[in-house]
Write a structure and sequence with these properties.
By secondary structure, the chain is an alpha+beta fold. 50% of the residues lie in helices and 12% in strands.
Amino acid sequence: MDDHDHDHHRRRFRPFSGLRNNFLAGLVIVVPVAITMWMIWTFVGWIDSWVLPFVPSAYHPDALINRYFGDSDWFLWLFGTEEVHVNVRGVGVVLFLMFTVLVGWITKGLIGRSFLAWGEGLVDRMPVVRSLYNGIKQIAETVFSTSTEAKFDKACLVEYPRKGIWAIAFISTTAKGEIDEKIPVDEPIISVFLPTTPNPTSGFLLFVPRHSVIELEMSVEDAAKLVISAGLVYPNAKDPSEPSEITPK
């Protein structure tokens, strides 16, 4: 049997190879979509379970539907009963968004700021609660701040935990005050945040000389994706050697 007949014989006994390839290609599409939808559905349900207990039962979606439509003939024909119990996902999310917007609008006014200052002054007198509240407040202001001062400037590379090993970090600010004065280096000192994988909310604050930092062209968001994915998701999937397109400001 020559090589041509041997290759033809091998190909003939693989009738499901195309089906397998199609299945794997479909998984690449279906799995991310399914996981994303599941996470959104679970998150919305968690918000509903946290918010709806504060809403009187008479104003729950199923109570409103039964109150206004329970006696109609089409309702009885559609559901086969005079009462229906429905789980309307997202009602709690809508109420939470409305409540949060209302609180933000109130605290921008003079009365809201005065009330907030009074409440924070009261919290400052509580030893344990004070530390917990101030820490959470600083994190929230950093994460949700709309100003550019509270955001990382650029992504970078630093040698950590030793020479020859490089890690992704984020440039925050130039060191100031006592930190800048006490470090015996005749060049600017930069403070960088080195996140951990796959949880970038924890990490290390490093103060390094300017020459030890290699700035990256990728955005902070792309660098965060690379850290979270443990190096599996690069900014430019088509050509990782090239940086992703920079979104115009």
